[in-house]
Structures are given as structure tokens and as C-alpha cells.
Design a protein that fits this description.
By secondary structure, the chain is mainly α. Helix content is 70%, strand content 0%. It has 29 helices and no strands.
């Protein structure tokens, strides 16, 4: 802590008359006062040389710029003068030598005050936060001015490390050490207030300008509310960059500089850094809080809110360290409050997104049993949300499951880790998917053809599973969840095959290889032709967007339908070969059936009518296309 200022000593109560008319000093005291007088006389020569009021040279020249050695000697001289003054005060506070010393000290402080201002104002480039924040850790921190009493000056120490640091760092370190030596000298001499005021004024302007250049400005929630989304998004992106630079460079550089210059006093360090940075830090953390107070809600807003939350959360250790002073407790609380409001806003947006799913009122069935727009929208949204899984885990923490939802085990039935509670974020996302699936169940009932309802469910659930498997949702929901829902896709697909193609398969004899009469064979061929043409006309307009599911359905149909028809075809073709116009009876070869099936599920036909010509000529054309 700084020692008591000399000015408070000199302006204390005047000595009593008895003190001034005391008996003559002892020989020891006279010797001491004489020694102090020599110290004062030596100091006078140095101080008067650099007195701007009596020297034209001193008026236009900077002491620290002109000669570091002489600057070192000046500081040393002032320190010696201060020690002499303490001794003189203790021995004879009315000494003429003491009065003379005080006058010299005031002149010296005025000079150092000027030097301090000049160094701060003319070395902005070398004291910019970026230069200071990247200050080489290989240079040891400058010691107090007592170190200047060594035979070597600061140049010697810097020169030793000169080969290992850049020229910019050398200059930056040199300037910082000059400021520190002046600050410590002025503080120890009782002139800390003057030094601190200069520092605060100049460095606060640096911080304010830095915040302004980073695009952080004072806004109101009403003003933000009136902005177009494009403007708001641009300001959010600016802020995301601003907080990174502010924490890593701007405030860090100022804290390093302040800690170094005022290392001699913890209270002055805190006071300076608080005065310089508090307003800028408060403004920095204010913007995201105002952002989430807007009534606008959109998927884009949720992601930008998560970005803002991430920016503060990721920088929180640095924020706590930088603003560790008690005087910054309000700033830390402000940042935590902003973080809390951002998290609350994310939870609200997800709740609103659930309502969007529940309230989706589209009534027209998707042509061909394809993907519903709601499925695409929800899964795109959730897969992007999963990229923020770490942040979402922080936000949801131990939050209870969504209101009116089943227990978490309902979503993760069959998991091998049933005894381990599922993370709240996993439960939340699983619930949103469940809401989507329930909504799709209702939309599937709008199809008049039940088989298409199952195809619709298979398509949409397959898309859900695929999105989960190929995004970070996989790590949140787990492989058990994926396996469970893949099984449901297979069930939906099997029901579709049974209802959509079962009547075609049942048109063939139960045992295709069994010997039957020619008349029975004719009747079976006629039934198969009719059922297959009817089924193909219906199915040609249906679609399976997922290639994997499409191939699985085709392969399954081929195993059941083509295999059975081939056995029946080969068993009865020879017996009916002699019949007139046999090609009108046996209209499809097994290869034709396979080729027709391979053309399906691309959605190339029409939904309701579209008589698809199923004839030998079209069959031949199909065979040519697949060769």
C-alpha cells in the first residue's frame, strides 16, 4: 500500500513556539541534517535541470525519450529526496532544508506528471490492448523502482532478452516499465491521485474507442424490436466477434497494463481498471439481454441466441478472472443474468416450437405418401440444434421433462442403461420428435388408401431416423433409440407391402409349383394380370425418397412376388403353350414383373388416374431400359 503522502505531513499542525526555540541540536542531529542537506543539494541540480519553468530545453524535451539513463537517475534522485524528507520530518519539521526539499519534490512531481502523460498519449500504438495482451511471458515482470538502484539499467535487462522477443514487444515492455517507474515514484511520494487521474482519462478513451470500433453500441429493446431481421442478425454477428476480441484482447490488455503500471498498490489497480473498463463491460453484456427481450421468435433467432449463450459461457473463466475485483461484482452479476436470460429464452423458443408442431393444420395428404414438409422442417431444426448439444446440456441441466409428457423411459424404452437417468436435453429433443411422430400419425389417416398411409409413415419415420443417425442427435438419443425406430420403419413398410401388394400375391396358387388343370392355370394367370395391372397403376405414383428404404421395399417385393410368379410361370407355361393367342393370357414374364417393380417409387406417375399401359410392348421397352 502507498505510504502517507508528504503533503499531508507538511500541511499538518504547525510546530509550537517552544519547538522552534528549543535548545541547540545535538552534534549527532546536526551531522544528520547536514547529510540530508547534501542529498537535497544533489537532487536540486537534477530536478532544476528538468524544470520546464526555468529551462527552455526541459520545456520542449522529454526526459524519458531523451535519455533513459538520465530518467533512471532522475527517479533515483527523487526517491533519495523522499527518504531525506522523511528523516528531516522526524528530526526537525521546521527545517529550511525540509522546506527546500518539499519545493523540489513538487517540481519533480510536476515533471513526472508531464512525462507520464506524454508517455501514455504518444505511445498509444505500443500500448494498444493487442500489443499488451500478447506481451511476451519470457520477460519477467518489471520489479519496483528499487531495482533501478542496481548497476545495470532497464536497457540491460531488455537487451538480454532482445533476441527472443520482437522489436514491438521490446518497445511495449520498455514503455510499460517507464510508466511503472513513474507511477511507483509518484505514489510513494504522495502524488498517486494526480498520476491515477491522468491514467484513467487516457486509457478509458482507449477502451471506449475500442468498444465503439467493435460495433457495440447502446440500444434499447424497443429500437431492436423495430429492426429488420437482417439488421438484427448483422448486429448479433458483430457482437459475437466483439465479445471474443473484447475479452481476449481489449480488456485483457488493459488489465495487464493496469496490473503492471500500478503493481505497487492493489487498491489503485482495482480503482483504475474499474474506472476504465466497467462501463464498456456492462454495455458489452447488455446487448444479448436486450436481444432476447424482443417478441420476435424464429428458428434463426434460437440459433443466434445459442451463439450468444455460447460466447459468454465459453469466455466465462476469462470473464471471472478479468473482472475479479469486488468492484466488478455488478458486471459479473450482469453477465450471469444475461446468460440466464439467454438460457430461459432458448427454453421458451423450444416450447413454442413444440406448439408449432402441435398446431400444424395442413390437411392435404402429401402426394404419393412422400415426405411431409413438417417432417423436413422439424428434423432440419433439431439436427442443427444438436450441434449445440453441449450448450443445451447447460441450459436444460436438470430441468424436468416437458409438461404433460410421458416419463423419459417412454422415449428410450429398451435402453441397456435404464438405471442411468437420461440427460434433460436428450429427453427434450426426444419429446419434440415424439410430438412430430404423433402429428404424422394423424396426417396418415387422411389417406383413403390405407396402404399409402403406411407408406407415408414409413417414409417420414425413415427420414427422422436418417437425420438422427447422420447428425449429433445420434449421440443425444443413442443407438438404442435408432434401432427401436428402425424396427418401426420395417413394420410400416411390411404393412404397406401387405396391403398394397398382398392381393397380387394371393392371386397366385398357395403352392405355385403344385400341378393344376389348364383351366385353373388360365384362371390364375387372368387374376394375376388383373391384380398386377391394378396394383401397378396405383403404386406407380407413389414415392420412397430414401434410396435405402426404396431398395429394401423393392427387394422384399421381388422375393415375395417375383419368386412366386416365376415358380408358377415355369410350372404352367409349357402346358398352355399350345393355346391360341397364349400371349394374351400370359402377358408377363417373371423378368417383366421384376422390371416393372424396379421402375416404381420414383413418383413419376399420377396420383389418381393415370392409366399406366401394362402390355407386352411396354414390358419389352422396360426390359430394354434395364439391360
Amino acid at each position: 500500500m502507498p505510504r502517507k503522502g508528504m503533503r499531508s505531513i507538511f500541511y499538518s499542525n504547525s510546530p509550537s513556539p517552544s519547538r522552534s526555540t528549543a535548545s541547540p541540536s545535538t552534534p549527532g542531529r546536526s551531522i544528520s541534517e547536514a547529510a540530508m542537506a547534501r542529498v537535497v543539494e544533489q537532487a536540486e541540480a537534477m530536478i532544476m535541470k528538468w524544470d520546464a519553468e526555468t529551462s527552455a530545453y526541459a520545456k520542449v524535451t522529454s526526459l524519458f525519450y531523451e535519455s533513459k539513463r538520465e530518467a533512471h537517475d532522475f527517479i533515483k534522485c527523487v526517491n533519495e529526496l523522499q527518504k531525506a524528507m522523511h528523516i528531516l520530518v522526524s528530526e526537525n519539521s521546521s527545517s529550511e532544508t525540509l522546506v527546500r526539499a518539499q519545493r523540489l519534490m513538487q517540481m519533480a512531481m510536476k515533471r513526472l506528471q508531464k512525462e507520464f502523460y506524454q508517455i501514455l498519449s504518444t505511445n498509444r500504438a505500443h500500448l494498444d490492448p493487442e500489443s499488451v495482451s500478447t506481451r511476451s511471458s519470457r520477460l519477467s515482470a518489471r520489479s519496483s523502482t528499487s531495482d533501478y538502484e542496481d548497476d545495470g539499467g532497464p536497457e540491460d535487462e531488455i537487451r538480454t532478452a532482445g533476441d527472443s522477443i520482437s522489436e514491438v514487444e521490446l518497445v511495449s515492455n520498455n514503455v510499460m516499465d517507464d510508466l511503472r517507474s513513474i507511477a511507483e515514484c509518484m505514489i510513494s511520494s504522495g502524488y498517486g491521485k494526480e498520476c491515477v487521474e491522468i491514467y484513467k482519462i487516457i486509457r478509458r478513451s482507449i477502451v471506449d474507442e475500442g468498444i465503439y470500433r467493435l460495433g457495440v453500441e447502446k440500444l434499447s429493446s424497443s429500437k431492436i424490436h423495430k429492426m429488420d431481421w437482417e439488421i438484427v442478425e448483422m448486429k448479433i454477428k458483430n457482437w459475437l466477434e466483439a465479445i471474443k476480441i473484447s475479452i481476449k484482447t481489449l480488456f485483457t490488455g488493459e488489465r495487464i497494463l493496469c496490473d503492471h503500471v500500478f503493481a505497487v498498490s492493489d487498491s489503485i489497480r482495482e480503482s483504475c481498471f474499474t474506472e476504465i473498463s466497467k462501463e464498456g463491460a456492462t454495455l458489452l453484456f447488455e446487448f444479448p439481454r436486450l436481444l432476447v427481450s424482443k417478441s420476435r421468435r424464429s428458428p434463426e433467432m434460437a440459433f443466434r441466441t445459442l451463439d450468444a449463450y455460447t460466447a459468454i459461457a465459453d469466455n466465462w473463466p476469462e470473464i471471472e478472472s478479468l473482472f475479479s475485483f469486488e468492484s466488478f461484482s455488478g458486471v459479473r452479476l450482469h453477465a450471469l443474468t444475461t446468460l440466464s436470460k439467454l438460457g430461459e429464452s432458448v427454453r421458451t423458443m423450444l416450447s413454442e416450437f413444440e406448439s408449432v408442431i402441435q398446431k400444424n393444420s395442413s390437411k392435404s395428404p402429401v402426394p404419393g405418401g412422400g415426405l411431409h414438409p413438417l417432417t423436413l422442417e422439424v428434423m432440419n431444426y433439431l439436427s442443427l440444434l444438436a450441434d449445440y448439444s453441449g450448450v443445451l446440456s447447460d441450459i436444460f441441466g436438470d430441468s424436468p421433462p416437458p409438461v404433460n409428457s410421458p416419463s423419459p423411459e417412454f422415449y428410450f424404452e429398451g435402453s441397456e442403461t435404464d438405471d442411468t437417468p437420461m440427460p434433460a436435453v436428450s429427453v427434450q429433443l426426444a419429446w419434440l420428435i415424439l410430438c412430430l411422430l404423433c402429428k404424422l400419425d394423424g396426417k396418415a389417416k387422411r389417406y383413403k388408401d390405407v396402404s399409402v398411409s403406411y407408406l407415408f409413415l414409413a417414409n417420414n419415420l425413415q427420414h427422422v431416423v436418417s437425420k438422427v443417425r447422420t447428425s449429433n442427435l445420434r449421440y443425444l438419443l443413442g443407438d438404442e433409440w435408432i434401432s427401436k425406430h428402425e424396427y418401426k420403419v420395417r413394420q410400416f413398410a411390411a404393412n404397406y407391402e401387405r396391403l398394397g401388394w398382398g392381393h397380387v400375391i394371393s392371386s397366385l396358387p398357395e403352392n405355385p409349383k403344385a400341378a393344376i388343370s389348364p383351366e385353373e392355370a388360365k384362371d390364375s394367370f387372368r387374376k394375376f394380370n388383373s391384380e398386377f395391372e391394378q396394383a401397378y397403376r396405383k403404386q406407380s405414383s407413389h414415392i420412397i425418397p430414401d434410396p435405402k428404404l426404396r431398395d429394401e421395399v423393392k427387394l422384399s417385393l421381388a422375393r415375395k412376388l417375383v419368386s412366386a410368379y416365376q415358380e408358377f410361370y415355369e410350372t404352367n407355361r409349357v402346358a398352355l403353350a399350345t393355346i391360341r393367342n397364349v400371349e394374351m393370357l400370359i402377358r408377363f414374364s417373371p423378368e417383366d414383373v421384376g422390371n416393372y417393380l424396379s421402375d416404381l417409387y420414383y413418383g413419376t406417375g399420377t396420383m389418381d388416374s393415370g392409366s399406366v399401359s401394362v402390355s407386352s410392348s411396354s414390358s419389352s421397352s422396360s426390359r430394354r431400359r434395364h439391360r
